[in-house]
Amino acid sequence: DSGVTQTPKHLITATGQRVTLRCSPRSGDLSVYWYQQSLDQGLQFLIQYYNGEERAKGNILERFSAQQFPDLHSELNLSSLELGDSALYFCASRRGGASETGELFFGEGSRLTVL
Amino acid sequence: AQKITQTQPGMFVQEKEAVTLDCTYDTSDPSYGLFWYKQPSSGEMIFLIYQGSYDQQNATEGRYSLNFQKARKSANLVISASQLGDSAMYFCAMREGKGSARQLTFGSGTQLTVLP
């Protein structure tokens, strides 16, 4: 158990809809990351937050948005869903200190299926 | 350009034998970190081993060791005495960014199958 909690674990929805994925980082971790893993693909970095502020942006679509709240949990909002958005969405966290190795602790993922 | 390259989409190894999973990387930053993660069929990402660019010795964690060749920009994972439970997807990753804006960039992965 990594200590990172993601909900829901599975989600099935239709094209055009909007969903919200939630992540609670490990206790004390200030940095939260979102990654997307499509079928047969590696992990694509979407976005990172540190202590409530956006720190880095990767290949995140404009239809997607995220935020980190004062209690450090994070939400990833996916809107106008398309079939190609079907994927496993991971949240990961780390303490955030500059002296760290940078190891990320991953949640179990939220599997999104768009029909 | 690919920053992390894993050229072996799939590998097979006999139980109890050793196997090497290849990873090459590309960066101009003198300070970086390299990681290996394991993803079983259940889907979770499990951290295996870490190597810092300034580390003098190759990292080892139990049956896992990282063959770090800095000049060749390679960071191969060696699994000794393979077990059936080692069957999984393995990802190499590199730390990029500085300070609080660090993130990991992942390779495309290698699917390892351990044969009985």
List key phrases describing it:
heterodimer; A: 115 residues; 7-stranded mixed beta sheet; 4-stranded antiparallel beta sheet; 11 strands; 50% strand; B: mainly beta
SSE layout and pairings?
The complex is a heterodimer of chains A (115) and B (116).
Chain A: E1 5-7, E2 10-13, E3 19-24, E4 31-37, E5 43-50, E6 53-57, E7 64-68, E8 74-78, E9 87-94, E10 105-106, E11 110-114
Parallel strand pairs in A: 2-11
Antiparallel strand pairs in A: 1-3, 3-8, 4-5, 4-9, 5-6, 7-8, 9-10, 9-11
Chain B: E1 4-5, E2 10-14, E3 19-21, E4 24-25, E5 33-39, E6 46-52, E7 60-61, E8 64-69, E9 74-79, E10 88-96, E11 103-106, E12 110-115
Parallel strand pairs in B: 2-12
Antiparallel strand pairs in B: 1-4, 3-9, 5-6, 5-10, 7-8, 8-9, 10-11, 10-12
Please sum up the structure shown.
Chain A has no helices and eleven strands. Chain A has about 120 residues and is an all-beta fold.
Order of helices and strands of chain B: EEEEEEEEEEEE
Termini separation of chain A comes to: 31 Å
Shape of chain A: globular
Multimeric state: heterodimer
Low-confidence sequence ranges of chain B: none
Q: Largest sheet of chain B at a glance?
A: 6 strands, mixed
Rg of chain A (CA only): 13 Å
Largest sheet of chain A: 7 strands, mixed
DSSP summary, beta strand count of chain B? 12
Which sequence of SSEs, written as H and E, runs from N to C of chain A? EEEEEEEEEEE
